[in-house]
């Protein structure tokens, strides 16, 4: 049976000589840098990956602190990149916040990045046009289009604005 990295016990750092300890820290730092060379990761995701690969928690914390101190890992920049990416893909603020939480971004960083995030009205109008084809007569189809926008994480006030822009009349059925 093949052993997974999670099954590997990290070394007990208290029992290691100074040279061995330095080697463990260096290998952990090298692995962290290698993981970040593949793709950007949040601090919590990087720490979790290092521990999953059998690194000691103290060594993982050291590597993370070193990389952050030298600017190789920055949760704020990572969050900004994620927000830009998901906005370009046509997602709303609720869905983007959910993705930031899933990726381990701290609430303070997420809030700071999301302050400047405006919903993409063009993307919302494109989705409405794709769903409705300019035909606003079928209330059921308009409701489905609204539900699709909600699933993409747009707030009701943004959906209302997009519907008004698209030309759909909003009545008490939506409120």
UniProtKB/TrEMBL annotation:
Major localization class: cytoplasm
Residue span, RecX second three-helical domain: 74-114
Subcellular location: Cytoplasm
Ranges of residues in domain RecX third three-helical: 120-163
InterPro entries in the cross-refs: RecX_HTH_1st, RecX_HTH_2nd, RecX_HTH_3rd, Regulatory_RecX, WH-like_DNA-bd_sf
A Gene Ontology biological process term: regulation of DNA repair
Domain RecX first three-helical, first and last residues per copy: 30-67
Keywords, alphabetical: Cytoplasm
A Pfam cross-reference name: RecX_HTH3
GO CC term, one of those recorded: cytoplasm
Record's keyword annotation contains Transmembrane: no
Function: Modulates RecA activity.
Family label: Belongs to the RecX family.
Stated name of the protein: Regulatory protein RecX
The organism of origin for this protein: Butyricicoccus pullicaecorum
């Amino acid at each position: 049976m093949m052993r997974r990295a999670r099954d590997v016990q990290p070394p007990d750092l208290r029992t290691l000589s100074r040279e061995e300890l330095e080697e463990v820290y260096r290998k952990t730092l090298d692995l962290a840098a290698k993981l970040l060379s593949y793709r950007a990761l949040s601090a919590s995701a990087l720490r979790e990956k290092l521990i999953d690969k059998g690194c000691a928690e103290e060594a993982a914390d050291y590597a993370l602190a070193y990389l952050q101190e030298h600017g190789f890992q920055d949760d704020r920049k990572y969050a900004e990149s994620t927000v830009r990416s998901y906005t370009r893909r046509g997602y709303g603020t609720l869905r983007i916040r959910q993705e930031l939480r899933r990726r381990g971004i701290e609430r303070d960083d997420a809030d700071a990045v999301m302050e400047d995030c405006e919903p993409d009205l063009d993307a919302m109008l494109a989705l409405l046009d794709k769903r409705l084809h300019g035909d606003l007569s079928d209330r059921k189809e308009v409701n489905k289009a609204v539900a699709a926008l909600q699933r993409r994480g747009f707030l009701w006030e943004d959906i209302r604005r997009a519907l008004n822009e698209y030309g759909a009349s909003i009545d008490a059925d939506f409120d």
